[in-house]
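Now for a specimen:

…
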Amino acid sequence: MEHLEKIKQLIELREKAKQGGGENRIEAQHAKGKYTARERIEMLLDEGSFEEYDMFVTHRCRDFGLEDQLYLGDGVITGHGTIDGRVVYVFSQDFTVMGGSLSETFANKICKIMDQAIKVGAPIIGINDSGGARIQEGVMSLAGYAEIFHRNIMASGVVPQISAIFGPCAGGAVYSPALTDVIIMSEKNSYMFVTGPKVTKAVTGEDISVEDLGSAGVHTSKSGVAHFRAESEEEGILLIRKLLEYLPSNNLEDPIVTECTDPIDRLEEELNSIIPSNPNQPYDVKDIIYSLVDDREFLEMHRHYAKNIVVGFAKFNGIPVGIVANQPNYLAGVLDIDASKKAARFVRFCDAFNVPLVTLVDVPGFLPGSRQEHGGIIIHGAKLLFAYGEATVPKVTVTLRKSYGGAHDVMSSKQLRSDINYAWPSAEIAVMGAKGAIEILESSNVAKIEDPEERAKYIAQKETEYIEKFANPYMAARHGFIDDVIEPRNTRFRVIRALQTLATKKDTNPPRKHNNIPL
């Protein structure tokens, strides 16, 4: 009988732990349109797969009345489960327990599952919904954050780390998500900032709302801190599951190749005429991406930020790839500070986890002007250059139209160890466009012609000569910098063949402690 009493006690304690901060606080969470920490885990993981750790942990603080506020689990749910049968580790912060505030034991729980995830080689998913450090614990809570940050750093490039922000995330709490690979924010209830509106006003005099300071809209469009803006928590969780389809469990594995029913030799006739005859006329590069990839399925990252470059995941005959593409539809597809940072980060993410890179090039150059130069476009452009140059994954590049100047070099050129470089017949690979080139090359001759009509005729003739000689892919092909000029409608087939050939590629960088990317 005593044995049965102990089992009954265990069951009761489990039920108590599952109640978090209690019914009233759970109802308050639901009233805000938010799910509880446990409900989020249930939605995220395969049914019945969650194995919880540290359900009976409580905090150790005895100051400021906390000795009377003991909750089993101490405000965070941790453990492991599966997504589509693959093991993942997860922590989910519980706002119903003291506003999800972080204590020493709260941090220890997170650190435990992060350490195990690194050992077994499984992704780490963090669901953030917290008021920040537990003030009553003082430096112990700050130390807890730093312990988590250190594990984020140690896990970086070893296992994928995904952060979902489904509520407040402020102060020191923001730096754990910032150290992870992907941040997803829900549109209605999430916000991130280092310093809140009240302190901001007190220190700087700026009067700003929570939404304008750190909402999902701000961080997905202006700061670039977040990669995805989800309309709801359900969509955010579906995004996490979808994202993992393109990634391996760790850096020692390759992404999983899935069965594909989309024919590899599918011809896309419209691609033969998609590039406008006027070189200054825009088009949407996403139309090309959708035409090339399996089942027209493309998971775009950073959709609302630096729209002049497009990055995201897709599959070619079941092979997961990362796609980087200049977007002529926005700022003519130029590279600027934000686009360079966005693409460099994505290239390094793909390379860290053995995801091949497919690059679609239509770039007229870097954005000129004092704002860009004073903002450090040289350093930021060098980030993308560095990222492509150090990447050892299979790299396939297709030049669609313009590829001018330094931007040509940066966009996965042959000299940055791109494995296979194709060009469409519409490709223009040169130091600069014809107009700019003739202004420089023929300036002295043009100055000698007094008659305006004769001058215009002479300039037009020279521009035509330049276009015929340089604004095409064949000069680069003659030097072997372009491996083949291909018919646009065949691009899907050629890219798939290239990726299949490169599946066994081995490439290494010189031994070193670590590189010093121009930050």
In short: Residues 394 and 441 are 39 Å apart (CA to CA). The chain has three domains: 2-246, 269-431+472-504, 434-470. The radius of gyration is 27 Å.
